[in-house]
Automatic annotation (TrEMBL):
InterPro entries: Nitroreductase, Nitroreductase-like. Residues 8-153 form the Nitroreductase domain. Keywords: Oxidoreductase. PANTHER family: NAD(P)H NITROREDUCTASE YDGI-RELATED, NADH DEHYDROGENASE_NAD(P)H NITROREDUCTASE XCC3605-RELATED. Belongs to the nitroreductase family. This is Nitroreductase family protein. The keyword Protein transport does not apply. The lineage of its organism: Bacteria, Bacillati, Bacillota, Tissierellia, Tissierellales.
Length: 193
């Protein structure tokens, strides 16, 4: 797959084929992408928890919120559609710099692109409670968890629809239950000089 096609395919997926688990090899390759992420001052203050236990995956799932743009929990995966794997990203509060969001974004991009290359979908979830994640995952006090990434083989499609500036950019479901993600045209986002 070309890089452009890979970038286009790597959307947020919120419905997974729960009957298909990720192989150990795929998980290892996804995790290996962490070492290639740039980070400010090479501090490497982020830590990761690879949640491979089905019971813990389901416990994390029960403590996340999904698809805020869709009403009535329409975007929340149902039984048979839930993720099969999570990565929790922990931030060392003592070491992080003002670039912390950038560092997280860079590593998240590596993780999700590596998964996408294998046909594995992902969803970045920021609607998590550090207190609840700490109870489930039992990590040190100096760390906080503000984001988890859900993974699995997608059961639906997710595609981009180009829109004009000012149009509603909220994602929505089409008549077949696939995600449509409106994106502004490059000419409306980039000023060339």
């Amino acid at each position: 797959m070309s890089l452009e096609n890979l970038l286009e395919w790597r959307r947020s997926y919120r419905k997974f084929d729960e009957s298909k688990s990720l192989s150990k090899e795929d998980i290892d390759e996804i995790l290996s992408s962490i070492k290639f992420a740039s980070c400010a001052n090479n501090r490497q203050y982020l830590r990761f928890i690879s949640v491979e236990s089905r019971d813990v995956v389901l416990e994390i799932f029960e403590n996340t919120k999904w698809a805020a743009s869709l009403a009535d929990n329409m975007g929340r995966p149902k039984e048979g559609e839930r993720p099969v794997y999570f990565i929790a990203i922990l931030s060392d509060e003592e070491k992080k710099l003002r670039f912390n969001g950038i560092d997280e974004g860079l590593v998240i991009s590596n993780l999700t692109l590596t998964a996408a290359e294998k046909g594995i979908g992902s969803c970045i979830i920021g609607s998590v409670s550090d207190k609840k994640m700490r109870e489930i995952l039992n990590y040190e006090d100096k760390y906080s968890c503000e984001v988890v990434i859900a993974f699995g083989y997608p059961k639906v499609k997710s595609s981009i629809k180009e829109i004009d500036a000012g149009e509603d950019q909220s994602y929505y479901l089409d008549e077949d239950g696939n995600y449509i993600v409106p994106k502004y045209k490059i000419k409306d986002l980039v000023r060339r000089i």
